[in-house]
Design brief:
PolyP_AMP_Tfrase; Rossmann fold; Polyphosphate:AMP phosphotransferase; alpha/beta; elongated; 492 residues; 5-stranded parallel sheet; polyphosphate:AMP phosphotransferase activity; 2 domains
Length: 492
């Protein structure tokens, strides 16, 4: 693939200026059209050391409307980034609707360098590239157009360029060290490019020997990307979905029907077990803090199932400095302008901290599915996207606990009426709760599919018997303790 870029193409100053006079207004026009369309474009600028990646980033910013561009350079990792999964730093910088994001460096940098230096094993390299392919496919499916530019220099051209940069005092700290491994960098980079050159995110190798040719080529590629993106219909976020499409999912036995809702704890049992589990959780939380193990707790369940009261029994055991509760409601305008997983990635805790989600990313396959806020193709694809998200959390060493609190329709009706009757509970019951109750069969089908498809061995769902609140709280605390102990043992 890199051979295609080794052509030594050049442009004269006159030819460069002539093409630029046409390209600059066309780029601005396409950029304004993109802003109106609500689409997103992500430009990845990668390639050889000394190939002018930084210069090209400056030039693209010069040619575009600066109000609609966000440029992020990925180099050194901050402590905040090191204490989260690898893709966290990229999710945080994603462009919003109608915006262009320019990434100087990307998710390719670390895998390639690690493989060149052999700090990453060969057998781990291709699986990492597969994860990148899946990640870029998820971005593309979510409406983000990815333009990947690889600026290439031949070995003689790179040597000459590095000498020029050294003379100007602009040489990077690792440039000559990397040059000594030029052939290995080329081999590894070629493999990475070929493996990740996909229809949804193709690579565009650019001969970077001549600055003018490099800039004009990149401008033309960006113009084509912007024009294509702007012609597509903006994603209808939270609009009613079209008629259902055909699906291959075949329902199996209902997991909800197998839950024994008659399970109870006496008051004496509850008062004995609850403080014991809370004490164990408190000690484990401090140990996780010391050993830098993050914890993510995800709570879902029927309306009035007791999620809030269960979360309170968890937080009672924790020092306030260690945890954060994130309540998830309808997305804000800022969140609607992003991929749906963005608002959850931004709350992923640092190592040693705890984040508790009251409602979660599973809204995509529950509320958005049943209420028609997401097309069938989108929520059906979300099962795989959620699985990839959770695998990254677990691979990073996080203790992940996912809970569905299950109650019977009769118990839910009883709690609804109690909320209407008791003044200080009245704010908990809304017309939407009654409306959702009328859709229990549709929601039950969605929950059963969620439990079947989103409960792998490393990130299982715990279905909680919630008709008795005391039993539910103890079951949840016991599960959290077991999950955290397992994560701590795995990281030891």
């Amino acid at each position: 693939m890199l051979d295609a870029a080794e052509q030594g193409l050049t442009l004269t100053d006159r030819a460069y200026e002539r093409q630029l006079r046409t390209l600059r207004p066309a780029l601005l026009k396409a950029h304004f059209a993109l802003q109106q369309s609500g689409r997103q474009v992500l430009v990845i600028v990668s390639g050889s050391d000394g190939a002018g990646k930084g210069e090209l980033v400056h030039r693209l910013n010069e040619w575009l409307d600066p109000r609609g561009v966000t440029t992020t350079a990925f180099w050194d990792h901050s402590d905040e980034e090191d204490e989260r999964p690898h893709f966290y730093r990229f999710w945080r910088a994603m462009p919003g609707a109608g915006k262009i994001g320019i990434f100087f460096g990307s998710w390719y940098t670390r895998p390639i360098i690690d493989r060149v230096t052999k700090s990453r094993r060969k057998r781990d390299f291709v699986p990492e590239l597969d994860r990148i392919v899946a990640f870029e496919k998820m971005l593309a499916d979510g409406g983000i157009h990815v333009l990947k530019l690889w600026l290439h220099l031949s070995k003689p051209a790179q040597r000459q360029r590095l000498k020029e940069l050294e003379r100007l005092g602009r040489l990077g700290p690792d440039d000559w060290k990397h040059f000594k491994q030029y052939d290995r960098f080329r081999t590894v980079s070629e493999l990475a490019l070929e493996h990740t050159h996909q229809p949804h995110a193709p690579w565009h190798p650019v001969d970077a020997t001549d600055r003018r040719h490099r800039e004009i080529t990149a401008a033309k590629l960006l113009l084509a990307t912007l024009e294509h993106a702007a012609t597509l219909e903006a994603p209808k976020r939270r609009a009613r979905a079209a008629a259902p499409a055909a699906r291959t999912w075949v329902p199996g036995p209902s997991q909800l029907d197998q839950v024994d809702l008659t399970q109870r704890l006496t008051v004496s049992q509850y008062e004995r077990e609850l403080p014991q589990l809370q004490e164990r959780l408190s000690r484990l939380a401090w140990r996780a803090r010391e050993e830098k193990v993050p914890t993510i707790l995800a709570f879902e369940g029927w309306d009035a199932a007791g999620k809030g009261s269960a979360i309170r029994r968890v937080t009672q055991a924790l020092d306030p400095r260690l945890y954060r509760v994130v309540g998830i409601a309808a997305p804000t305008d800022e969140e609607r302008a992003q991929h749906y997983l963005w608002r959850f990635w931004r709350h992923v805790p640092r190592d040693g901290r705890i984040t508790i989600f009251d409602r979660t990313w599973y809204g995509r396959v529950l509320v958005e599915r049943v209420e028609g806020f997401a097309p069938v193709a989108d929520w059906d694809r979300a099962y795989f996207e959620i699985d990839a998200f959770e695998r990254q959390l677990v691979d990073h060493g996080a203790a992940l606990g996912k809970f569905w609190i299950h109650i019977s329709p009769a118990e839910q009706l009883k709690r609804f009426k109690e909320r209407q009757r008791v003044a200080w509970k009245r704010h908990k019951i809304t017309d939407e709760d009654w409306r959702n109750r009328k859709k229990l069969p549709a929601y039950k089908a969605a929950v059963d599919e969620m439990l079947a498809r989103c409960s792998p061995g490393e990130a299982p769902f715990t279905v909680v018997a919630g008709d008795d609140k005391r039993f539910a709280r103890v079951q949840i605390l016991r599960t959290i303790v077991e999950r955290l102990e397992g994560a701590l043992e795995a990281g030891a």
